[in-house]
Amino acid sequence: MYRISQLARKFGLSRSTLLYYDQERLLSPSGRSEAGYRLYSETDLERLAAIVSFRKAGLSVEETRAVLESQEGETSVLRKRLAAIGAEIRALQVQQHLLARMLRVQSEGGLPESVDKETWVAMLRAAGMDDKAMETWHAEFERRAPQAHHTFLLGLGIPEQEAQVIREWSAAAAPARSSRTR
Protein backbone atom coordinates (compact mmCIF):
# COMPACT_ATOMS: atom_id res chain seq x y z
CA MET A 1 0.00 0.00 0.00
CA TYR A 2 1.14 3.54 -0.78
CA ARG A 3 0.43 6.72 1.12
CA ILE A 4 -0.60 9.78 -0.87
CA SER A 5 2.82 11.46 -0.71
CA GLN A 6 4.54 8.25 -1.90
CA LEU A 7 2.14 7.89 -4.82
CA ALA A 8 2.48 11.56 -5.74
CA ARG A 9 6.26 11.36 -5.69
CA LYS A 10 6.24 8.16 -7.80
CA PHE A 11 4.35 9.97 -10.59
CA GLY A 12 5.81 13.43 -10.16
CA LEU A 13 2.46 14.87 -9.09
CA SER A 14 1.52 17.09 -6.22
CA ARG A 15 -0.45 15.84 -3.25
CA SER A 16 -3.17 18.35 -4.14
CA THR A 17 -3.50 16.80 -7.61
CA LEU A 18 -4.24 13.42 -6.05
CA LEU A 19 -6.73 15.03 -3.67
CA TYR A 20 -8.36 16.68 -6.70
CA TYR A 21 -8.55 13.32 -8.52
CA ASP A 22 -10.22 11.87 -5.40
CA GLN A 23 -12.69 14.77 -5.32
CA GLU A 24 -13.45 14.26 -9.02
CA ARG A 25 -13.88 10.50 -8.47
CA LEU A 26 -11.05 9.60 -10.81
CA LEU A 27 -8.91 7.94 -8.14
CA SER A 28 -10.11 7.12 -4.66
CA PRO A 29 -7.89 5.47 -2.07
CA SER A 30 -8.51 1.79 -1.43
CA GLY A 31 -8.43 2.35 2.30
CA ARG A 32 -7.22 4.34 5.28
CA SER A 33 -4.53 3.67 7.84
CA GLU A 34 -5.28 3.59 11.56
CA ALA A 35 -4.04 7.18 11.66
CA GLY A 36 -6.48 8.14 8.86
CA TYR A 37 -3.96 8.43 6.04
CA ARG A 38 -5.18 7.56 2.54
CA LEU A 39 -3.78 4.26 1.31
CA TYR A 40 -3.50 3.24 -2.34
CA SER A 41 -3.12 -0.28 -3.72
CA GLU A 42 -1.24 -1.60 -6.76
CA THR A 43 -4.54 -1.44 -8.66
CA ASP A 44 -4.85 2.24 -7.71
CA LEU A 45 -1.27 2.76 -8.90
CA GLU A 46 -2.16 1.22 -12.30
CA ARG A 47 -5.29 3.38 -12.52
CA LEU A 48 -3.22 6.49 -11.76
CA ALA A 49 -0.75 5.50 -14.49
CA ALA A 50 -3.67 5.39 -16.95
CA ILE A 51 -5.00 8.75 -15.69
CA VAL A 52 -1.58 10.35 -16.12
CA SER A 53 -1.33 8.96 -19.67
CA PHE A 54 -4.77 10.24 -20.65
CA ARG A 55 -4.06 13.66 -19.17
CA LYS A 56 -0.71 13.86 -21.02
CA ALA A 57 -2.65 13.04 -24.21
CA GLY A 58 -4.74 16.15 -23.54
CA LEU A 59 -7.95 14.56 -22.28
CA SER A 60 -9.96 16.61 -19.82
CA VAL A 61 -10.93 15.26 -16.42
CA GLU A 62 -14.43 14.52 -17.77
CA GLU A 63 -13.06 12.72 -20.82
CA THR A 64 -10.63 10.75 -18.64
CA ARG A 65 -13.49 9.70 -16.37
CA ALA A 66 -15.54 8.58 -19.39
CA VAL A 67 -12.66 6.47 -20.69
CA LEU A 68 -12.05 4.88 -17.29
CA GLU A 69 -15.73 4.14 -16.67
CA SER A 70 -16.54 2.62 -20.05
CA GLN A 71 -14.48 0.57 -22.42
CA GLU A 72 -16.97 1.45 -25.21
CA GLY A 73 -16.57 5.17 -24.53
CA GLU A 74 -12.80 4.92 -24.69
CA THR A 75 -12.62 4.70 -28.47
CA SER A 76 -15.15 7.48 -28.98
CA VAL A 77 -13.47 9.87 -26.54
CA LEU A 78 -10.01 9.13 -27.91
CA ARG A 79 -11.19 9.57 -31.52
CA LYS A 80 -12.78 12.94 -30.65
CA ARG A 81 -9.57 14.10 -28.97
CA LEU A 82 -7.51 12.93 -31.94
CA ALA A 83 -9.80 14.86 -34.31
CA ALA A 84 -9.56 17.97 -32.11
CA ILE A 85 -5.77 17.77 -32.11
CA GLY A 86 -5.82 17.35 -35.90
CA ALA A 87 -7.91 20.52 -36.24
CA GLU A 88 -5.55 22.40 -33.90
CA ILE A 89 -2.55 21.24 -35.93
CA ARG A 90 -4.16 22.35 -39.20
CA ALA A 91 -4.97 25.78 -37.71
CA LEU A 92 -1.39 26.10 -36.46
CA GLN A 93 -0.04 25.09 -39.88
CA VAL A 94 -2.10 27.86 -41.51
CA GLN A 95 -0.68 30.34 -39.01
CA GLN A 96 2.82 28.97 -39.57
CA HIS A 97 2.45 29.33 -43.34
CA LEU A 98 1.17 32.89 -42.99
CA LEU A 99 3.98 33.88 -40.62
CA ALA A 100 6.58 32.35 -42.95
CA ARG A 101 5.18 34.41 -45.83
CA MET A 102 5.21 37.55 -43.69
CA LEU A 103 8.87 36.91 -42.77
CA ARG A 104 9.75 36.29 -46.40
CA VAL A 105 8.06 39.55 -47.41
CA GLN A 106 9.87 41.40 -44.64
CA SER A 107 13.25 39.94 -45.62
CA GLU A 108 12.63 40.89 -49.26
CA GLY A 109 12.24 44.49 -48.18
CA GLY A 110 8.54 45.25 -48.39
CA LEU A 111 5.10 44.16 -49.33
CA PRO A 112 4.54 42.17 -52.48
CA GLU A 113 2.96 43.94 -55.43
CA SER A 114 -0.12 41.79 -54.93
CA VAL A 115 -1.46 39.17 -52.56
CA ASP A 116 -2.79 35.95 -54.05
CA LYS A 117 -6.12 34.31 -53.23
CA GLU A 118 -4.54 31.69 -50.94
CA THR A 119 -2.72 34.30 -48.85
CA TRP A 120 -5.79 36.53 -48.64
CA VAL A 121 -8.05 33.68 -47.46
CA ALA A 122 -5.40 32.56 -44.95
CA MET A 123 -5.19 36.09 -43.54
CA LEU A 124 -8.99 36.31 -43.20
CA ARG A 125 -9.14 32.93 -41.48
CA ALA A 126 -6.26 33.91 -39.17
CA ALA A 127 -8.29 37.01 -38.29
CA GLY A 128 -11.14 34.72 -37.24
CA MET A 129 -13.42 34.91 -40.26
CA ASP A 130 -15.42 31.81 -41.18
CA ASP A 131 -17.08 31.13 -44.54
CA LYS A 132 -20.25 33.04 -43.60
CA ALA A 133 -18.26 36.12 -42.53
CA MET A 134 -16.30 36.04 -45.79
CA GLU A 135 -19.55 35.83 -47.77
CA THR A 136 -20.85 38.87 -45.88
CA TRP A 137 -17.58 40.70 -46.58
CA HIS A 138 -17.87 40.00 -50.33
CA ALA A 139 -21.55 41.03 -50.36
CA GLU A 140 -20.74 44.34 -48.69
CA PHE A 141 -17.80 44.99 -51.01
CA GLU A 142 -20.00 44.25 -54.05
CA ARG A 143 -22.81 46.47 -52.74
CA ARG A 144 -20.56 49.43 -51.89
CA ALA A 145 -18.02 49.31 -54.73
CA PRO A 146 -18.80 46.73 -57.43
CA GLN A 147 -16.02 47.73 -59.83
CA ALA A 148 -13.43 47.91 -57.04
CA HIS A 149 -14.59 44.45 -55.90
CA HIS A 150 -14.07 43.12 -59.41
CA THR A 151 -10.61 44.70 -59.66
CA PHE A 152 -9.68 43.36 -56.23
CA LEU A 153 -10.69 39.79 -57.17
CA LEU A 154 -8.65 39.94 -60.36
CA GLY A 155 -5.74 41.38 -58.37
CA LEU A 156 -5.75 38.23 -56.22
CA GLY A 157 -5.09 36.24 -59.37
CA ILE A 158 -8.64 34.90 -59.58
CA PRO A 159 -9.62 34.14 -63.20
CA GLU A 160 -12.25 36.40 -64.79
CA GLN A 161 -14.91 33.67 -64.91
CA GLU A 162 -14.47 32.81 -61.19
CA ALA A 163 -14.51 36.52 -60.31
CA GLN A 164 -17.83 36.90 -62.14
CA VAL A 165 -19.32 33.95 -60.21
CA ILE A 166 -18.18 35.47 -56.89
CA ARG A 167 -19.66 38.83 -57.88
CA GLU A 168 -22.97 37.25 -58.89
CA TRP A 169 -23.56 35.48 -55.59
CA SER A 170 -22.24 38.53 -53.74
CA ALA A 171 -24.76 40.74 -55.54
CA ALA A 172 -27.55 38.29 -54.78
CA ALA A 173 -26.64 38.33 -51.08
CA ALA A 174 -26.07 42.11 -50.89
CA PRO A 175 -29.72 43.33 -51.09
CA ALA A 176 -30.85 40.92 -48.36
CA ARG A 177 -27.98 42.10 -46.16
CA SER A 178 -28.53 45.81 -46.77
CA SER A 179 -32.26 45.62 -46.10
CA ARG A 180 -31.56 43.97 -42.73
CA THR A 181 -29.13 46.68 -41.69
CA ARG A 182 -31.44 49.61 -42.47
TrEMBL record:
Coiled coil: none annotated. InterPro entries: DNA-bd_dom_put_sf, MerR-type_HTH_dom, MerR_fam. Keywords: DNA-binding. Gene3D superfamilies: 1.10.1660.10. Pfam families: MerR_1. Residues 1-70 form the HTH merR-type domain. PROSITE patterns: HTH_MERR_2 (PS50937). It comes from the Bacteria. This is MerR family transcriptional regulator. It comes from Geomonas propionica. The lineage of its organism: Bacteria, Pseudomonadati, Thermodesulfobacteriota, Desulfuromonadia, Geobacterales.
